[in-house]
Amino acid sequence: MGIFQYQIILACGLCFASDAMEVLLLSFLGVILKSIWSLSEAEENSIVSVVFAGAMLGTLVLSPLGDRIGRRPVFALTAVMISVFGVLTAFCTNYPQILLARFFVGFGVGGLTVPYDALGEFMPSSYRGKRLISISFFWTAGSLLVPFFAWLTLGGNEVSWRTFVALCALPSIVSTVLGVLMVPESPRWMLTRGKHDQALRILRQAAAKNGGDPFLAFPEKTQLVDTDSSRFTGRQWYGQAFMYYGAIMAVSIVFSDVSANPDDNTTNADDIYSDDSNGRSFDFDYGAIIITSSAEIIGLIIAIFMVDRLGRVPTQTWFYFLGGLCILILGLLDFYRLHLIFFAFLSKMFIMAATSVTWLHTAELLPTKIRATGHGLGKFLFLTKVKNRKRLLIRLDQII
Asked: What residue ranges are annotated as transmembrane (predicted)?
């Protein structure tokens, strides 16, 4: 474990951050464009749904490609698509253009399992658990940057939301550059294609970059052997359908639609309030969104501490249960703003801990030759469940 792996962590981590940002910004973008472009509720919902529709298709196309043509080219394609269409979103001038741009952003997001699997294949087994969970800190950083960029740029006019969207595409642009420069093809994947010499050459380069003697680590006449004997089940991903994406969007919607009236006990007088040129308005409780997003940091620390002590399956089971319980409480009871923040914080903390372990566990269960395809299949199972969640989440907001 050395600089070779840390460079790959940086490139893959920024790709992870871009995924988080492109999903979370939907909670802001839908509200903003509904106000500025006078969209209907159905049109606003479609801006969210089309991203997950694109991700479903992207998962079915890009994940098998990761097993067929290699991790590296699919990593590059994923990052390029998110970057290009993320930036193009800022130049859209009408509703159909927005739908098209966000669909292809979602298509790129659908391939995110491939960079994650490539990262896992470069990790020494003794480091894999905690390092693969730690990559989710990039996701959390992206989740925190979105409300920060929103607070920094949004002013209720055409220019401000475009700047906001362009800023959210920056991590993916950097990830594309770093991926091309720093991430080689996975030696494990090469072995499944009989490319023994190329795989050995990459491992020797890695040893040299980490400060070791490549021919001491891998002497002459070394023969690499693929010993995968893993198995896979998609049920654990099915549970994510109603948890992580639902939770982050529900929380964002709750704190995006709060009243700006200072006399309303469910908010405070300092909430940001913006007006567009047509007299319509939108408001976001940036403080509450940032606080609840920071809960993911605590969740990841808990997961890192517990994953090897409690085990993969018990960690997921308990944290999914506790996260779901907090969401249930959040939806059934009537709270003031502080209570909403408290239970939203707990729900995101537990759910982030559980989902980070699910990603790790899936990568460990899958054999190399079908790892990208199988991981993508798991993601497809839960995307089919979240594509139309926005309407349900609006009902949750009305209940609260």
From this structure: 7-33, 45-62, 74-93, 99-120, 132-152, 164-183, 237-255, 286-306, 318-336, 342-361
Amino acid present at 301: I
Handedness of CA 61, 372, 355, 230 (dihedral sign): positive
Determine the pLDDT at residue 374: 57
Contact 50, 99 (CB under 8 A): yes
Its sign, for the CA torsion 85, 107, 165, 174, is negative
Query: Residue 387 corresponds to which tokens in the numbers above?
Result: 């594509």
Q: What is the DSSP string of 244-262?
A: HHHHHHHHHHHHHS----T
In this structure, are residues 248 and 240 in contact, taking their beta carbons and an 8 Å threshold?
A: no
pTM of the model as a whole: 0.71
Percent residues over pLDDT 90 in the chain: 8
* Residue position matching structure tokens 């939770």: 247
333 DSSP 8-state letter: S
CA distance 26 to 48: 6
Q: What is the DSSP letter of 243?
A: S
The residues, ordered by sequence, that sit 6+ positions from 380 with a Cβ below 8 Å of its Cβ are: 56, 59, 60, 63
Please give the structure tokens belonging to residue 309.
């002590």
pLDDT at 335: 66
- What is the tens place of the pLDDT at every residue in 302-345? 888 887 788 888 888 888 889 888 888 877 766 677 888 888 88
Contacts of 159 (CB under 8 A, 6+ apart): none
**C-beta separation of 251 from 146 below 8 A:** no
8 Å CB contact between 119 and 346: no
Which fold is adopted by the domain 3-183+227-399? Answer: Growth Hormone; Chain: A; (1.20.1250)
The domain locations on the chain are 3-183+227-399
Backbone torsions φ then ψ of 283, nearest 5 degrees: -140, 150
Distance between CA 161 and CA 150 in Å, rounded?
Answer: 8
**pLDDT for 366:** 63
CA distance linking residue 63 with residue 114, whole number of Å? 6
